[in-house]
Specification:
The protein is an alpha/beta fold. The chain is built from seven helices and seven strands, in the order E-H-E-H-H-E-H-H-E-H-E-H-E-E. The radius of gyration is 17 Å and the shape is globular.
Length: 222
């Protein structure tokens, strides 16, 4: 008796970036475009938001690891579903690790988050910090934290060896940039997004991308 071949998991798109950069809006827009294209897509919401809503506060240091692990578990569960073609993850454990470092000075979550992100995500979209900052209750600390967060996210993506597409612009142009990156990564784009080795001495500076629509950034060679 021949064993049935294992089903490949769904294609996972992770959307990450600093606060107030339109990540949730971008995920929602991509879900709509995938549905219109006949793709079976599912969104994995940010677990941190649900935690804050339920607890009425932001997490303490000792609660960060469980939040990161739950985000990873939810993404993996969605990717394993046989009725799903594409998973759109509204953040990953990488963001929990970044904020744990920024807020608590705790770098202990990076190793697991980097491994899980590289292992479980096929494409990463990094939302640029070119949108106006907006308040959003407990989850936002202020516009002043966006550049430090952005720099940390870029650093951990490089360490994880995870290529990413920087998505900038406003309105439909921002969605178009993300959609082009998704289609190119899945081999459906007529004009693939160019792969680029990031060599800028200001590789933590999000302003470097503000002149671009989308660029796939590969980790620098070791």
């Amino acid at each position: 008796m021949t064993a049935a071949p294992a089903r490949r998991r769904a294609f996972v798109v992770a959307v990450v970036g600093a606060e107030s950069c339109g990540k949730t809006r971008l995920v929602t827009a991509l879900a709509g475009r995938l549905a219109a294209a006949g793709e079976r897509a599912v969104v994995v919401d940010e677990h941190l938001r649900a935690f804050c809503d339920a607890a009425g506060r932001t997490p303490r240091q000792g609660e960060q690891a469980a939040i990161a692990a739950e985000q990873t578990r939810r993404i993996a569960d969605a990717a394993a579903r046989p009725d799903v073609d594409v998973v759109l993850a509204d953040t990953t454990a990488l963001m929990t690790a970044v904020y744990s470092d920024l807020v608590f000075g705790d770098a202990g979550l990076y190793a697991a988050a980097e491994h899980d992100h590289a292992d479980g995500c096929d494409l990463t979209l990094l939302a640029a910090t070119d949108l106006p900052w907006q308040a959003d209750g407990l989850q936002r600390d202020g516009a002043h934290v966006r550049d430090p967060v952005d720099a940390r996210v870029r650093a951990v993506l490089h360490r994880a060896g995870a290529p990413y597409a920087v998505v900038s612009g406003t309105g439909e142009a921002r969605t178009d940039a993300a959609w082009a990156a998704v289609r190119a990564a899945r081999g459906a784009g007529s004009a693939p997004v160019p792969a680029t080795v990031w060599a800028c001495e200001h590789c933590g500076d999000s302003a470097c991308e503000r002149r671009l629509l989308t660029r796939l950034v590969q980790p620098p060679p070791s």
